[in-house]
Design goal:
The protein is an all-alpha fold. Helix content is about 55%, strand content about 0%. The chain has 18 helices and three strands. A three-stranded antiparallel β-sheet has the order 1-2-3. A hairpin with a 4-residue loop joins β1 and β2. The chain is globular and about 70 Å long. The protein starts with a helix and ends in a 27-residue tail after the last helix. Bound molecules: acetyl coenzyme *A. Acetyl coenzyme *A (ACO) binds next to loops. One of its GO terms (cellular component) is cytoplasm. Pfam families: Citrate_synt. It catalyses: oxaloacetate + acetyl-CoA + H2O = citrate + CoA + H(+). This is Citrate synthase. Belongs to the citrate synthase family.
C-alpha cells in the first residue's frame, strides 16, 4: 500500500484511478471483504454465521458499536429502536405531495432527506449525543418510511408501526396488513426478511457508502448524508441490480432459451450482460449469494411456489454459467442480487420496492461508516483530483466574431 498523501506532499504526484478501483479512501474497522476467497465479515464475524444465528437488530448494534451486545445491551438497544419507529404526524402529509405513480426510491430520497427538517435536535454532527439519536431514528424509522412508500403506491392507508413486534415482522405487517382484515405474521417470511436485511447491512466502500462518506465529510447533517446514499444506491449497476436480474430471468422465460442469453452475454459486440453475475470485488462465489439462494428456497417452499418458472430458469442458468469457460475464466459468479429478486417478488413486493428494501437494510451500514468517519481525527473533506483534458487558455471571443 502506498501512502499517496505523503507522496503528494513530497513530490506533487497523484494517482489517476477512475472508478477508484485501486484507491483506499479511508481506514475502516467495520467490514472486511476478501473477494478472492469469497469472505465477508462484519466486525470480524462471518456473514453466514450472522445470518444463521443473529438477527438484524443485533447486527445493527454490532456494526455501530463494534462488538456483539450483552443481553442487557441488546434489550436496551432493541427497546430504543422500537420506541423511535413512529413518524411525526406532519411527516405523513409530506408523502401525499408525491404523485401516486412516483417511484418509491424517489419518495425515499425526498422523505429521508426531509427528516432533518423534522428532527432539528439531531442534526448537529459535532454533538455525539445528537449523532446517536439521529442514528437510532434512522434505523427505527426507515421501515415505517419504506412501508409508507409502498402503501402510497398501492393506494392503501398507512399502517402504524407496532412496537411489540420484531423489526422485520413489523415491517412486513406495515406493508401487507390491510385495515379491517386480520393480518397473520408468517415466521418463515419474517425470518427471511430479517436475513435479507442482515445480508445487505454493510459492504464497505461501495458507491453509496462512499457517497455517504463524501457528503458527510463536508459536515452535512446525517439525514442529508443518508439521502445522498439512497440516491446513489438507486442506479441499476448498484442497488437496482436485483430488479434488473429478475427482469432478465422473466425475459428468458424458459430453460430452453438460456443458451441464447448466455451466447449474448459472451458476445463482445452485444452490450448485454447476465444481470446478477459478476462483482467488482468478489472474484469467487459471493458469500451472501449462498445464504440468499437458501433463503429463496425456504420462502418459495413456505409459499408453495417451489415450481416457480423464474426459479427454475435461475437455477439452470447458474448451473450452465458456472460450467462455461467464459464465466469461469472471468470469475463471474452469481451475486446477491441473483436470487434476491425472485425471493422478494414471491413475498409480494413489486420490483420497484426492491431497492427500497436494500436502502432500508443498508441504512445501518451507512450510519456506521458515517460515524466512523466523523469520529476519525484525521478526516478531511473529500476532494478527488482530476486529470484536466480540456482546452488550453484562450481569449474570450465576442459573439459577433464566432
Ligand atoms: N455478464 C457477462 N460478462 C460480464 C459480466 C456479466 N454479468 N460481468 C462482467 N463481464 C465481463 C466483462 O464484459 C469484462 O469482459 P472483458 O474483460 O472481456 O472486457 C469482464 O467480465 C470484466 O468486467 P468489468 O465490467 O470490467 O468488471 P467490473 O468489476 O468493473 O464490473 C459489475 C462488475 C459491474 C458488477 C459487472 O460484473 C456487471 O455489470 N454485472 C451485472 C450487473 C450486476 O449484477 N450488478 C450487481 C453488482 S452487486 C451489487 O451492487 C450489490
Amino acid at each position: 500500500v502506498i501512502d499517496i498523501r505523503k507522496l503528494y506532499a513530497e513530490t506533487g504526484m497523484f494517482t489517476y484511478d477512475p472508478g477508484f478501483t485501486s484507491t483506499a479512501s479511508c481506514e475502516s474497522q467495520i467490514t472486511y471483504i476478501d473477494g478472492d476467497k469469497g469472505t465477508l465479515l462484519y466486525r470480524g464475524y462471518p456473514i453466514d454465521q450472522l445470518a444463521d444465528h443473529s438477527n438484524f437488530i443485533e447486527v445493527c448494534y454490532l456494526l455501530m458499536k463494534g462488538n456483539l451486545p450483552s443481553k442487557d445491551e441488546l434489550e436496551t438497544f432493541d427497546w430504543t429502536i422500537r420506541r423511535h419507529s413512529m413518524l411525526h404526524d406532519q411527516f405523513d402529509q409530506f408523502f401525499r405531495g408525491f404523485r401516486r405513480d412516483a417511484h418509491p426510491m424517489a419518495i425515499m430520497v425526498g422523505t429521508v432527506g426531509a427528516l432533518s427538517a423534522f428532527y432539528h435536535d439531531s442534526t448537529d454532527v459535532n454533538d455525539p449525543a445528537a449523532r446517536t439519536i439521529a442514528s437510532h431514528r434512522m434505523i427505527a424509522k426507515m421501515p415505517t418510511i419504506a412501508a409508507r412508500a409502498f402503501k402510497y403506491a398501492v393506494g392503501q392507508p398507512f399502517i402504524s408501526p407496532r412496537n411489540d413486534m420484531d423489526y422485520a415482522a413489523n415491517f412486513l405487517r406495515m406493508c401487507f396488513a390491510v385495515p379491517a382484515e386480520d393480518y397473520e405474521s408468517n415466521a418463515v417470511l419474517a425470518k427471511a426478511m430479517d436475513k435479507i436485511f442482515i445480508l445487505h447491512a454493510d459492504h464497505e466502500q461501495n458507491a453509496s457508502t462512499s457517497t455517504v462518506r463524501l457528503a458527510g465529510s463536508s459536515g452535512a447533517n446525517p439525514f442529508a448524508c443518508i439521502a445522498a446514499g439512497i440516491a446513489s444506491l438507486w442506479g441499476p449497476a448498484h442497488g437496482g441490480a436485483n430488479e434488473a436480474a429478475l427482469n432478465m430471468l422473466n425475459e428468458i422465460g424458459s430453460v430452453d432459451k438460456i443458451p441464447e442469453y448466455v451466447r449474448k452475454a459472451k458476445d463482445k459486440s452485444d452490450p448485454f450482460r447476465l444481470m446478477g453475475f459478476g462483482h467488482r470485488v468478489y472474484k469467487n462465489y459471493d458469500p451472501r449469494a449462498k445464504v440468499m439462494r437458501d433463503t429463496c428456497h425456504e420462502v418459495l417452499d413456505v409459499l408453495g411456489v417451489r415450481n416457480d418458472p423464474t426459479l427454475q430458469v435461475a437455477m439452470e442458468l447458474e448451473r450452465i454459467a458456472l460450467e462455461d469457460p467464459y464465466f469461469v475464466e472471468k470469475k463471474l459468479y452469481p451475486n446477491i442480487d441473483f436470487y434476491s429478486g425472485i425471493t422478494l417478488k414471491a413475498m409480494g413486493f413489486p420490483t420497484e420496492m426492491f431497492t427500497v428494501l436494500f436502502a432500508l437494510a443498508r441504512t445501518v451500514g451507512w450510519i456506521a461508516q458515517w460515524s466512523e468517519m466523523i469520529e476519525d481525527p484525521t478526516q478531511k473533506i473529500g476532494r478527488p483530483r482530476q486529470l484536466f483534458t480540456g482546452a488550453t487558455p484562450r481569449d474570450y471571443l465576442d459573439l459577433s466574431k464566432r
